[in-house]
């Protein structure tokens, strides 16, 4: 305090006196005070921080006594943070690869035709969305809508089997696998199958699914008649005889014209097939392609990027074969050995030697090993090339024959979660193939190598006959037309969000480069695999392109007549097929 008073006194004297002699003798003292640390500042800081400490202690004490710990709390383990669970009335629905997901509070499960009619009529009156979900497997999430969906999972009965006519009538919610099981006792089966059999029949036909075989059409051609429940007009029956124009349009209607409630399908006699798998190369395929396409009931090629390997899979009735040896030269373990060895070597490089000695490796299937291999470095081209070469070796040691029922033989293990793009384009006829299918593949493989795309295997190539459904990618009025379907892929072998995002970005770059070939071959994407661009200009180009191939105006006109309030629509459908004229108001 004395220092403080002295300082103030001296300053007053200094500022109040005009005579230099009045304060000159005190200048040394002032200089000494000004050069030393300020006691005023030190005292003030001390009081300030002491106050902060007392405030903190007081708040802590108040909190402790206001909210005491429960008994035994000190002995409880810390629980890591978890996101709050979804509300009970909120449904999370995603497609199989988890590339598209929505959350909705409206997910209806009608268990009868009247219940479905009532649900759609109510949605129409109230102008609510109710998108038909199917099994939700479509890679592009075509059936998803956060505004509301309807699932026919409870409408899964076989209603009638006519063994003489070889037809079956089912509720559209039955899965393909369940239908095939039910047909077995009647000695019937479906004409063709896609790679998997978990689809609901309604979605199976609505997206134009397909198998392979140059003389076998996509599955919508198996539809003889259907009951379609529409928001505006209720239930209508369609067939070649009853409103044929709408019938053909609605067979591949993408769920936009009505909900397929019941469907009658043309079946075939249950039969066995002999599958012949062998490895070839591009030159040999070119020499034999016309013959193979014509002679084999089912055929597909699996192209392995960055190699000259083409896996050829041919399936035919047993009568076509002269007692083939139904065993492979190598056993399953021998076929997988090269892939296992690569995985162990890669684990040493990317992880640890301990992991490479894990005995569980010997229990993994080929597709599981491929997923684990790719997961180590999915976007490194050199690593992907090694995996592809290992796959080529696997197929070389898997050559041979096997025989079984058609629904078992025609299935295909597609691997784990993935991004996929598949397009369809005309390739002449069975007797006069244009060879554009092989030309397309050649250019695609060249593009992959030129652009250093980390493209995994396989690039799957299949064929179908034409479809009379105008919205089918294989639509044609020419009876003999053949279409080739080519699918490119990138696996999502990891749950790491950052890595999945990077793979997704690389896949869309891959798809964009492949897209540069489409116009030259009149190629159009599978409806369940077409992705809607985010860029407005790209979207406008896609819309214009679709109009060149499909009867978009007729499709939209039917949509507005059967679903004026767009109950069945979602964002994807609206962007693909925008309605240009003003909507008619529902009465």
From TrEMBL:
- Which Gene3D superfamilies is this protein grouped with? 3.30.465.10, Uridine Diphospho-n-acetylenolpyruvylglucosamine Reductase, domain 2
Segments spanning the bilayer are none
The protein's UniProt keywords, in alphabetical order, are: Oxidoreductase
Q: Name one Pfam family in it.
A: FAD_binding_4
Q: What GO molecular function annotation could you give as one example from this UniProt entry?
A: FAD binding
Q: Does the keyword Oxidoreductase apply?
A: yes
Q: Which GO terms describe its cellular component?
A: membrane
Where the record annotates domain FAD-binding PCMH-type, the positions are 99-270
The pathway that the record names for this protein is: Cofactor biosynthesis; L-ascorbate biosynthesis
Q: Does the keyword NAD apply?
A: no
Task: Note the PANTHER family from the entry.
Answer: D-ARABINONO-1,4-LACTONE OXIDASE, L-GULONOLACTONE OXIDASE
NCBIfam families according to UniProt = GLDHase
Protein name, UniProt field: FAD-binding PCMH-type domain-containing protein
Organism listed in the record: Panicum virgatum (Blackwell switchgrass)
